[in-house]
């Protein structure tokens, strides 16, 4: 076995290796991400967002951002690594290999005369008769005398030249990468070694596995509890207005586990008085309604009041403990709303379709929470059919400001956006009474609001026309344009205390049957990922159609240019229904902005099946079970219709107009789409033989 110094050195080298293997790649990856991160400003620069402090890069905030647990751990591990390297270097200096020429200060191959001369010179310095220092005596005996003997004695010199050591062949030595105290098997050291082996090899992996399994059994990949998904799945119904969606949203298990303290009673009572008008209580029986409200489960009451306080912007006077719960509630809201949206569009009926009305309700609730706008602001008021919600998301806008600009016959938010900058500035300063600086803030926010266009086409790959039972592929190009030139950006949300990326949901739906055929989330933040996905999708599609390499490369280049110009390719497949013409609608809904959603008509003509072959595996079984499911869904929808209140979605009037147009039979039927302004995108219909 190796000596104790060698074992200690091996142990330190082992620890250094175990630290370096994960630490070096992790550090390189983090540095690469920080260097390649875009420096372009993608958040709102108005004064209200500046006052919110979300994007402020103060010295304290920079230090706070750096001093995270991860960064401090990485820094500490690097310090430990440097200490280990320094200590190992010191140990290696102390355990130098036996080199007699080097010890005597000679070059290899020196003559015997030079060896004796050097030995006499060193003897004067280190011989015990000349130097009484014990260290000098030790060095003279173990090194100088031994080196002289190795180079002057014929046998020793032969051994050194043959085996590298004056004593001849040395035994094979092995070292163990453990500290010396663990190698002393006598006494308690053996127990410590056994305990370390059991702890590291058995207990530590077992503990990690238990923690991972317990967490994975409780949370999904989006860090939402499984119990929350179960609650959302069972509580969401086919027809839900946003206030009903609110009742489902606050039942999340994360919210139910938030504490309700005795000290919260008085602040919650004050909040109730402030937001009572938003709670849909019957004012004629206010006492009964109030008693009924407070009899609910305490966490439900607390969450609803906190959300209403946020929507009505009444959260400034909350006490510290309640303010902490309020911020935690808002921090969880985006991902809970995303999971609620997934539950709304989850295939429920026999045809594998989700529900449209609750999906729209979830998005509208998300918009109101991000912009801190009351749900009642969406109700039509006078000539303004859209309500005042879109205007209230602008900085310095209040209900009185909206009334003032309505005198100029500005009825909708879209009309306000389409005004010229000079005309809008005149209205804001002279009619609305805003200062020039406040009017400039409004312009900055209007430049951030996206204009969304959608181009949708539906076709059966490699076939002419669409026949019943075919697998239909939907191709949708979603484009975003902003006046400031950005593609992806953080929305103007001064009352939402966390940074929020805007996301869009593309829905291909039938508003007449309240069904969502296809749904997909769209993000404009990661251009590189979008380019990769679009290139791969176009390449696979073209290869399946038998296109040449040149045609494939050309199509891929066109797709990449589209993505770089602010578009995203969305693809999806669905089963073609029975023969007939279907008036579908593509919705592109933003979860952060009010008033920028868009919809376009998609008329799908399905012909009677004439091609050889059977239906695709996408087909659903039809039979008694499917019929029972459809009857149950119809009964559920009838019950929900009775519960609907006077809330009207911004899409309700558009849907009524679309139904009237469909009854009149206007417009040419194509397997394509119309853009946001109603221009038809041509596409060949195809024909089949009976």
UniProtKB/TrEMBL annotation:
CDD domains recorded: DnaJ
Regions of compositional bias (Polar residues) in chain numbering: 679-690
UniProt keyword terms in alphabetical order: Chaperone, Endoplasmic reticulum, Glycoprotein, Membrane, Protein transport, Transmembrane, Transmembrane helix, Transport
Intracellular or extracellular location(s): Endoplasmic reticulum membrane
Compositional bias segments (type: Low complexity): 619-630, 668-678
GO molecular-function terms, A-Z: protein transmembrane transporter activity; RNA binding
Segments passing through the bilayer: 12-32, 66-88, 192-213
Membrane-protein topology: Multi-pass membrane protein
Gene3D superfamilies the UniProt entry points to: 5' to 3' exonuclease, C-terminal subdomain (1.10.150.20), C2 domain (2.60.40.150), DnaJ domain (1.10.287.110), Sec63 N-terminal domain-like domain (1.10.3380.10)
Record domain J: where: 99-164
Bias-annotated ranges (Acidic residues): 631-659
Region described as Disordered: spans on this chain: 613-690
GO cellular component: Sec62/Sec63 complex
GO biological process: post-translational protein targeting to endoplasmic reticulum membrane; SRP-dependent cotranslational protein targeting to membrane
Domain of life: Eukaryota
PROSITE patterns, A to Z: DNAJ_2 (PS50076)
Pfam families membership: DnaJ (PF00226), Sec63 (PF02889)
Protein name per the record: DnaJ / Sec63 Brl domains-containing protein
């Amino acid at each position: 076995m190796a000596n104790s110094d060698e074992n200690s050195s091996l142990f330190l080298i082992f620890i250094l290796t175990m630290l370096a293997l994960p630490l070096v790649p992790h550090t390189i990856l983090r540095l690469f991400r920080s260097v390649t991160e875009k420096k372009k400003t993608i958040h709102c620069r108005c004064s209200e967002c500046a006052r919110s402090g979300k994007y402020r890069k103060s010295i304290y905030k920079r230090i706070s951002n750096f001093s995270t647990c991860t960064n401090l751990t990485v820094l500490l591990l690097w310090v430990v690594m440097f200490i280990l390297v320094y200590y190992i270097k010191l140990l290696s200096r102390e355990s130098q290999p036996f080199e007699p020429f080097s010890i005597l200060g000679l070059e290899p191959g020196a003559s015997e005369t030079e060896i004796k001369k050097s030995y006499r010179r060193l003897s004067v310095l280190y011989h015990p008769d000349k130097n009484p220092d014990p260290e000098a005596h030790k060095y003279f005996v173990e090194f100088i005398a031994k080196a002289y003997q190795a180079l002057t004695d014929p046998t020793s010199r032969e051994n050194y030249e043959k085996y590298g050591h004056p004593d001849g062949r040395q035994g094979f030595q092995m070292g163990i990468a453990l500290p010396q105290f663990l190698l002393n098997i006598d006494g308690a050291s053996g127990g410590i070694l056994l305990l370390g082996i059991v702890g590291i090899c058995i207990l530590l992996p077992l503990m990690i596995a238990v923690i991972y399994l317990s967490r994975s059994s409780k949370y999904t990949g989006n860090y939402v509890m499984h119990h929350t998904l179960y609650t959302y799945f069972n509580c969401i119904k086919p027809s839900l207005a946003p206030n009903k969606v609110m009742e489902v949203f606050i039942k999340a298990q994360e919210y139910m586990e938030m504490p309700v303290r005795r000290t919260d009673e008085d602040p919650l009572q004050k909040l109730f008085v402030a937001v009572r008008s938003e709670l849909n209580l019957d004012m004629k029986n206010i006492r009964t309604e109030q008693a009924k409200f407070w009899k609910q489960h305490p966490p439900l009451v607390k969450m609803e009041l906190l959300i209403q306080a946020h929507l009505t912007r009444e959260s400034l006077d909350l006490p510290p403990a309640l303010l902490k719960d309020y911020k935690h509630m808002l921090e969880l809201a985006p991902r809970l709303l995303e999971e609620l949206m997934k539950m709304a569009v989850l295939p429920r009926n026999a045809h594998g379709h989700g529900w449209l009305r609750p999906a729209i309700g979830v998005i509208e609730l998300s918009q109101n929470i991000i912009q801190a706008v009351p749900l009642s602001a969406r109700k039509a008021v006078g000539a303004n059919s859209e309500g005042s919600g879109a205007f209230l998301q602008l900085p310095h806008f209040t209900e009185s400001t909206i009334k003032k600009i309505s005198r100029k016959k500005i009825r909708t938010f879209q009309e306000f956006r389409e005004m010229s900058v000079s005309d809008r500035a005149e209205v804001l300063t002279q009619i609305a009474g805003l200062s020039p600086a406040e009017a400039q803030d409004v312009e900055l926010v209007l430049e951030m609001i996206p204009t969304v266009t959608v181009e949708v086409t539906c076709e059966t790959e490699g076939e002419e026309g669409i026949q019943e039972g075919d697998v239909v592929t939907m191709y949708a190009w979603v484009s975003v344009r902003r006046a400031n030139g950005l593609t992806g950006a953080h929305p103007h949300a001064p009352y939402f205390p966390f940074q929020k990326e805007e996301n869009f949901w593309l829905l291909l739906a039938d508003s007449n049957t309240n069904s969502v055929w296809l749904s997909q989330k769209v993000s404009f933040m990661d251009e590189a990922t979008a380019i990769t996905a679009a290139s791969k999708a176009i390449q696979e599609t073209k290869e399946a159609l038998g296109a040449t390499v040149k045609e494939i490369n050309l199509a891929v280049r066109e797709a990449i240019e589209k993505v770089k110009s602010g578009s995203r390719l969305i693809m999806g497949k669905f089963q073609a229904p029975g023969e007939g013409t279907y008036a579908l609608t593509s919705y592109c809904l933003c979860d952060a902005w009010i008033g920028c959603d868009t919809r376009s008509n998609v008329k799908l003509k399905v012909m009677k099946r004439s091609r050889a072959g059977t239906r695709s595996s996408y087909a659903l079984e039809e039979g008694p079970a499917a019929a029972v499911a459809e009857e149950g869904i119809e009964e559920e929808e009838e019950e929900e219709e009775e519960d609907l209140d006077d809330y009207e979605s911004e899409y309700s009037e558009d849907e009524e107009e679309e139904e009237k147009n469909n009854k009149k039979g206007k417009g040419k039927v194509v397997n394509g789409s119309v853009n946001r302004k109603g221009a038809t995108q041509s596409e060949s219909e195809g024909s089949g033989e009976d």
